[in-house]
Task: structure prediction
Amino acid sequence: MGYMKEKVAYLRGLADGMEIGGDAQSKLLLAMIETMDEMAGTIDENEEAIIELDECIDDICDELSDIDECLDALVDDEGCDCCGEDFEDDFVEVECPHCGETVYFDQGMLESDEALICPNCNEPVIPKAGDEE
Ligand SMILES: [Zn+2]
Result:
């Protein structure tokens, strides 16, 4: 039971203890307690909803700060602690034998059978064997 509900339950208990009869004032008093009980229910529900929302917002804030750290790591071209990605190891530097330009390839691209195309001169690039472990 929520805090407000408890307060109204106490009032109801007091009213019961007074053994109030069926006169107009007693009816009004009981009707007021009834109304307060409904209001208390709504207030307690709202309070719970607010607490839930608050926790939700906390989670979102944590996520955002993780994303922020992740973005910082990307900008710094360093590994990311939060998502486990290590950007430094993912790219391999290759000098194009055709135009001499230094180009970068994803580790996954090197391991696949697909031909690597130099983005500078559009010629196929063959990375030197033994460069990578
Ligand atoms: Zn090239």
